[in-house]
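Mods, move this if it's the wrong board.
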Amino acid sequence: MSTSGLRVLIIGGYGAFGSRLARLLAGDPRFHLLVGGRSAKKAETFAAGLEGRAKGVVFDRNSDVQAQLALLRPAVVADLSGPFQEMGEDRYRVARAAIALGIDYIDVSDSREFVSGIDALDVEAKVRGVFVLSGLSSFPALSFAAAEKLAIEFAEVHKVSSGIAPSPRASIGLNVIRAIASYAGKPVKVTRGGIPAESTGLAGGPGMVIAPPGCVPLRWRRFLLADTPDLSLLPQRFRHLREAFTGAGTEPQWLQSLLIFAARLVRYRLLPSLAPFAPLIHAASRRLASGEARGGMFVRLEGLGHDRQAFAATWHLVAEGDDPFIPAMGAAVLLRALADGKRPGSGARAAIAELPLGAFEDGFRPLAIRTGIRRQRAGDRRLSLYQRVLGDEEWRMLPPAVAAMHALNDGEMRVCGRARVERGSGLLAGLVAAIIGFPRAADDIPVSVTFKEKHGRETWTRNFGGRRFRSRQSEASGHHAHLLAEDFGPVRVFIALVPEGERLHLIIRGWRIFGLPLPLFLAPDGNTFEEQRDGRFHFHVEIGGRLTGLIVRYTGWLEPDQPAMPSSSTSSASRN
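Not the wrong board. Structure tokens:
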């Protein structure tokens, strides 16, 4: 095996995060990977399954670290082991040994004390001409990269909130659970009202729907306070900061509720610590996992925009699947840049200004990861309903005919066309169709739709060959934020708007009858989309369900019959 390429020792190389970094770099001829761990067999077995130059090696951080590094001769040490919260008094022994041998060092620590204190090695690192970068993980490297991207749009940042929402089916390592257990129920220093304050680890924080524009949102999650480096570093970055929060939102929510209860036992000193229970919590999280195999992250800034008006912007990320590459992505991106000759400056510091958000997002592209920014500003009600739900960027990408159908803001518009209608044959399907007023089956009938928009809500009156039915649409909030809410009599459905090429897909993400939430798997569903074809607006609406089968399917085209007219109140206001 050739030993050419940048020699990178990955400590914890077959563990939860180390294995991800190895897989991200595997097959790249610029690297020679040393997969390090205490078990020679595990290291060798994992390395053998990687593409390219990889070798399993024994590395024990509790033995003579400097001697082991001298023998292995890596150019860079990447520590992905942890938990960094439990490194003890000699927490920087690996970094110090690397500095002594002139070896560059990076880690993915999210320990507040570890990352915040790494600059104690700054002078040593500069003397030896090496870089020592700590925190190349979701917190603080990625969270700060997102915050810096958003901060450009602010005159003053008053509040920063961020959180990570792992997939319930993700393979989260025991060390991650040990890190969380180390501060659960313990005092955590925060910023509140612009001054240092104290809260409690895993205390309940804000609820959030993570929803990159144009993507099916994650389900609403409550985020619990996590003791991350950001809580120390953010007040140093934003001088007008009044409040900072970092958290984690796990699924299923009932298991998270048990964590909150256990943390309270620690807080009230009924338990000394959750650390001894980490293996039990880890096993429970694996065996009791339920929910969608999707995870995500958000970073939200609130304050004043450059117009000195209240402004908020949120960066969203959704990762499909259950393989968490995100915590290892910062290390992968930095190492690739290093292999390209882009070397960070010498010295020891928190890795919060090494990589711009664009570098992370370039790394995400080959993976099933979507990101985007949503903004809230004074005057958003002046935007059309669909523009508010979709977000600025996705709205601008809609085909002109589709955008024109949803551009109404405070007024009335009528469109006409032709349609084909199919009806389900089941008794229950017929009953539901009759209650709502869906049209009867027909091969080719005239159709018109009248839109009326007022105070941010739209009323759609559809007329299929003389048979009318009506629905009302509005912007959902709370647990269904960033979704479109549509009411058909007593039934309310919550819909994700997902552009894809020339189509706008409408995907049901929840529903209620008489205000009562019902299981999603029983919700009406079907392939529903709008598209532009030959310059004309076309629709394809399909409604059915597990219990009913097909209820109705109607397809056809529409074009303006009556241009948009402002409401009388708007007209009066304009005349005045």
